[in-house]
Amino acid sequence: MTTLIAIIGFFLLPINDSAATITDHLGMWNYEVEAPDMTYKGTMELKEEDGEYKGTMKSQGVSIPLTDMEIDGDDITFKMNVQGFMCTVAGEFDGDTISGTVSVEGMSLPLKGTKAK
């Protein structure tokens, strides 16, 4: 009987509401990329359209589409073409923050950001 009560109790435990869902990662983000010459700042919009993840990064008046985007749990990857250079981005969400790297031409540049309020 004690085992039965323990099993029933296990299934009645509340689900962890703090676990992020993919929709928590969508929306507008403020980001910074540390490059050797300067820190690039801008916004990044992540969205889902027709079952696909899409987005844009905006900085210094330029809007760049994000391609090949995948979001798997708290991990995100995508590509973007910046002035003819193909950049690959890999990051990880942690609540209202994101951190990762932008890889381009053999360099890895740190990326960090916060969810816009």
Radius of gyration: 19 Å
Q: Specify the CATH homologous superfamily.
A: Quinohemoprotein amine dehydrogenase alpha subunit, domain 2
Give the topology string: H per helix, E per strand: HHEEEEEEEE
Distance between the termini: 51 Å
- The average pLDDT score comes to 86
As for the number of domains, it is 1
Strand order of the largest sheet: 1-2-3-4-5-6-7-8
The first-level CATH class name: Mainly Beta
Content-based structural category: mainly beta
Q: Count the helices. How many?
A: 2
SS strand fraction = over 45%
CATH topology value = Lipocalin
Largest sheet, in brief, is:
8 strands, antiparallel, barrel
The coarse silhouette is globular
**Helical content (DSSP H or I, runs of 4+):** 10-25%
**Would you identify the regions where 5 or more consecutive residues have pLDDT less than 50?**
3-19
CATH architecture label name: Beta Barrel
Commentary on this structure:
- The chain is mostly beta strands and 117 residues long.
- It has one domain (19-115): Quinohemoprotein amine dehydrogenase alpha subunit, domain 2 (Lipocalin), CATH 2.40.128.120.
- Helices cover 12% and strands 62% of the residues.
- Strands 1-2-3-4-5-6-7-8 form an eight-stranded antiparallel β-barrel.
- The protein is globular and about 35 Å long.
- Mean pLDDT is 86; it is low at 3-19.
Annotate the secondary structure layout.
Blueprint: H1 2-11, H2 22-25, E1 27-34, E2 39-49, E3 52-59, E4 62-72, E5 75-82, E6 85-94, E7 97-104, E8 107-115
Antiparallel strand pairs: 1-2, 1-8, 2-3, 3-4, 4-5, 5-6, 6-7, 7-8
